[in-house]
Amino acid sequence: MSTQITAPFKKQLQEQRATLLAQLATLRGGNVGRAEASAAHFGEREIDTRAQMSSERELEFTLDARESAELDAIDAALKRIEDGSYGVCIDCGADIPAARLHAAPETPRCISCQDKLEHKRPG
Fold first, then answer.
1. Residues 6 or more apart whose Cβ sits within 8 Å of residue 45
2. pTM value?
3. C-alpha 49: how far from its chain's center?
4. Is 13 domain-assigned?
5. Do 91 and 113 contact (CB within 8 A), yes or no?
6. Residue 31: its pLDDT value, please?
7. Model confidence over 45-90: pLDDT tens digits?
8. I want to staple 60 with a disulfide (CB 3.0 to 4.6 A). Which of 8, 10, 38, 49 is the partner?
9. Is residue 46 in some structural domain?
């Protein structure tokens, strides 16, 4: 894709990245990681049971992993824009439709390959 075509996607990705980083900073209380914020959070209040505390910590770690994966996907898309491979499926090499890129600008795959990936059965 040409720079002229990818420019709006680049802007959208950069805005998504900035918004996500701002949300993370707000939720974490600054530049602390979620694990540190979680430890501080759980240290300030009494938890009735170990199971409840464990469940809440697990949820926070899961959210951290999801946010990290989202940032990684955005960064990878920005890299593909820079190297000229943006908008091309990383699996089959087909062009990713513009409507899909507008809906999910960080996507590295066409719908068909994403569907295959999600429905792949181990084994």
1. none
2. 0.70
3. 32
4. yes
5. yes
6. 53
7. 555 576 666 666 676 667 677 888 899 999 999 999 999 999 999 9
8. 38
9. yes
User: d(Cα 120, Cα 123) in Å, to the nearest integer?
Assistant: 9
Both structure tokens of 108: 């590295």
Tally of domains within the chain: 1
What DSSP assignment string belongs to 38-90? HHHHHHHS--S-HHHHHHHHHHHHHHHHHHHHHHHHHHHHHHHHHHT-TTB-T
Range of the domain at 59: 3-86
Which structure tokens are listed for 53? 């505390």
111 contacts: CB under 8 Å, gap ≥ 6:
97, 100
112 belongs to a structural domain: no
Instruction: Write phi, then psi, for 114 (nearest 5 degrees).
Output: -65, -40
Task: Give burial (CB, 10 Å; 0-12/13-18/19+) of 109.
Answer: buried
Which value, to the nearest 10 degrees, does the dihedral of the CA atoms of residues 58, 60, 61, 64 take?
160
Residues making up the chain, counted from first to last = 123
